[in-house]
Amino acid sequence: MWPRTLIGLFIGLFLSVSLVLNLNLLLPFAEGTRLLIGLILAFPIWAGCIVWAYAYPTAWKSFKALMLMFVPSVILNTTLMMLR
Amino acid sequence: MTMNNQTLKSLTNAHAWVGLIISTVLFVIFFAGAISLFKANITSWERTPLLIDAKAATGTPAFDKALATIEEQYQVEMHGGFFIFPPDEHNPYIEIGFESELAQPDPETGEDHEHHTLLFDATTGELVGDSHEYNYAEFVYLLHYNLGLDRPGLYFVGLVTLFFFVAILSGIVIHWRKLFSKFFQYRKDGKKDKWLDAHNLIGTMGLPMHIMYAFTGLVFNLVIIYQISYAVILYQGNQDALLDAAGFDQPHLEEVDKRMAMTGVDEMYRRAMATMGDVTLERISIEHYGDESAILVFAATSNDDFSLWREVRYLMSSQEQIYLTMDNYDNAVRGGLSTIASLHFGDFAGYGMRMAFFLFGLATAYLIITGNLMWIDKRAKQRKQSARSLNFVRRLTSGGFIGIVLATAVGFVLARVLPIEQFGRADLIERSFYAVWIACIVIAQLFANQKLFCKGLLGVCAALFALVAVADWTLLYGVSSQLEGSVLRDVLLVDAILLLLSAICVGAMKRVYASEKQMAPTDVEPIASQA
After folding, report:
1. Is residue B245 part of a domain?
2. Which of B313, B323, B335, B382 is the most exposed, having the fewest neighbouring CB atoms within 10 Å of its CB?
3. Any A CB within 8 A of B224 CB
């Protein structure tokens, strides 16, 4: 259980930061509103990622599932940051 | 086994495991949090011997006189925070928190300054006493949000709250298919089903509240993680730029290092109250206390709107108004944070709402216990389960959970019986609290008959809670009979809560007795408690 916990905790944290960052860069709202949306969504995404990690029977499968979401999200982060 | 069933099995195991790991700390968080909803009332209750002689200030409280008293007696540390809490319905005194410089660093800690939280007469500005010495409710509140362990405790509680959120989300997924069809199911006969149904019932009925508490608690304790992430990635490491965008952009001045007397607060208080309209003044603060650059800040909440903060700032040297917001700092993040705080504290709809939050907090504490009991019950049936580890969890559940209730009850007793003028009473209460809790945890591990242990502990808890409430109107009638107005209401309210806690302990004790009669004797040690 511990390996899946750590995968969910750390990759989940990075994934939540990455997803919320994408939203911040994409949404057409005022700066304060975008920050608030990020604040509201970040923690549920993080907790959701940990649950997602637990949904798989092995740590390796959890890792693959989360990375499958994390890598494209980081690529989008990088693209959006460069276009900014 | 289909993929769905495999996922469900993985999540069910994770739900039970996460719940068990965080259960003891989460129980402390919810139990202390429920009591902390009445923090101001408990503080007023504890200070009744002091409040009998207190006279409420008519008109403007004597802030300037109180500051003059501080100037006479302390060397205020200019770089520390300086906070003034005006008198309110629970507290007739001016309360001021600040730091003073020490002539020599503390030989033990090496600190060169000392924190103070002092009470001043609202009419004469004279020093009444040290607020920290009679503030048991503050200690319980600290337990709620940082376990009394300062910043590390804050983050640890945040981490536990994150896994509470995980337990909620995994619980929803596990229970989803039965969420509506078994919504009103509560099988009170039959041991396992009763716990499972109680767990599901409280979990389902209280779901919006659980999500709200988990989310808002996370924001309070762990927002720093996203704050740093945002500052580094989105604002190229510029923390100030992020804070500005989040509405923390009120005017600040550089210190000029020229001494100036801190006066004129009374006059600026009158102007601030006239400017902000129908508000409750929450706090006054002074930035750069004693310096020519000092700024006087009045922060208040609107009496007519939900969770709306207003703030006005004056330059103390010229008494010129330099900032005003009438609407949550005119910023979405500040407005959102204000709403999050109001939801968490339940401070927006009077005592009815607060009592509902209180009962809900206790119900969640019960939910945590039922989770542990189900885990123990399930594991007890598994042949491969180590008896030693099962006994450890069983006894930790008894000692840790009921122990915190007993420690709280002992704290209430001491807060009432220790003389208000006794030096070091706060330390004595805090040490007694921890001693009782640790003793319960240790003794539980050594006690073979857990049923007897639970019954005894719950009985003592019930007796102590009731004793304090009854003593207020018997042994201490001389003091209580002199109370009136809001102080009398606070005492009655706290006594009612103590009697309620006592009744809950009696109810829990009865369930232990009832389960004992129902259960046939087995070789396996009985379940810790049904409390």
Report:
1. no
2. B382
3. no
B388: its two tokens: 């030693």
**In angstroms, what CA-CA distances link B31 with B113, B344, B406?**
34, 15, 12
Tabulate helix, strand, coil % of chain A (nearest 5).
90, 0, 10
Cross-chain residue pair A21–B169, CB shorter than 8 Å: no
Regarding whether B398 and B514 lie in a shared domain, the answer is: yes
In this structure, the answer to whether residues B197 and B316 fall within a common structural domain is no
Task: Using the 3D structure, point to which of B283, B301, B330 is the last residue of a domain.
Answer: B330
Q: What is the mean pLDDT of chain B?
A: 89
pLDDT, chain A, mean:
95
Read off the pLDDT of residues B62-121 as tens digits, 9 standing for 90 and up: 999 999 999 999 999 888 899 999 999 899 999 999 999 888 888 877 888 889 999 999
From chain A, pick out residues whose CB is under 8 angstroms from the CB of B229: 17, 21
Distance CA B230, CA A77 (A): 13
Q: Which two tokens stand for residue A24?
A: 């911040």
Q: Which ranges constitute the DSSP H helices of A27-58?
A: 31-54
Neighbouring-strand partners of residue B301: B280, B309
Chain A to chain B, count of Cβ pairs less than 8 Å apart? 85
Number of helices (H) and strands (E), helices first, in chain A? 3, 0
User: ipTM of the predicted structure?
Assistant: 0.97
Tell me: pLDDT of B331 over 60.
Answer: yes
Residue B324 backbone phi and psi in degrees, to 5: -150, 130
Q: Is B506 helix (H, G, I), strand (E, B) or coil?
A: helix
Q: Measured between CA atoms, how close is A36 to chain B, in angstroms? A: 5
Residue B191 reports pLDDT greater than 60:
no
Q: Is the dihedral of CA B194, B195, B200, B206 positive or negative?
A: positive
Condensed to tens digits (0 to 9), the pLDDT of residues B368-411 reads 988 888 888 788 787 777 788 888 888 988 899 999 999 999 99
**Structural domain boundaries, residue A43:** 1-83
- CB B163, CB B21: distance < 8 Å: yes
